[in-house]
């Protein structure tokens, strides 16, 4: 089974250390794109900046709210398997703070919100 067929834990940057080497889903806003297009900086929903490492250079300009699915490389970096950029209208209405609260609850009460990855 490949990564895209498995469940992913929803996390914010403060949870990355707990999921090193595991598939995750993290949401945030684009801060800076590397000139090579091979990585970008993203501010996660808990206001921490992480690096997103691309497997292939970006083919489009990223901006606004983005959801990244990938594997935790280290406590401050994720290797991106795929991403979804929110349309501008949706990004403007999206409550990233409420999303962060939901992520914290899911991770605080993992027994109630289990994520099967096997």
Automatic annotation (TrEMBL):
Keywords: Nucleus. Signal peptide: none annotated. The keyword Nucleus applies. Its main location: nucleus. It is found in: Nucleus. Belongs to the replication factor A protein 3 family. The keyword Nucleus applies. SUPFAM superfamilies: Nucleic acid-binding proteins. This is Replication protein A 14 kDa subunit-like.
């Amino acid at each position: 089974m490949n990564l895209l067929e498995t469940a992913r834990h929803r996390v914010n940057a403060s949870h990355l250390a707990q999921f090193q080497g595991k598939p995750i889903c993290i949401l945030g806003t684009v801060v800076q794109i590397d000139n090579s297009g091979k990585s970008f900086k993203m501010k996660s929903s808990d206001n921490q900046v992480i690096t997103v490492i691309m497997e292939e250079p970006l083919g489009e300009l990223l901006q606004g709210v983005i959801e990244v699915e990938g594997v935790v490389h280290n406590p401050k970096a994720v290797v991106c398997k795929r991403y979804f950029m929110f349309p501008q209208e949706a990004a403007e209405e999206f409550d990233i703070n409420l999303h962060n609260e939901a992520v914290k609850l899911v991770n605080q009460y993992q027994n109630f919100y289990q994520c099967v990855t096997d």
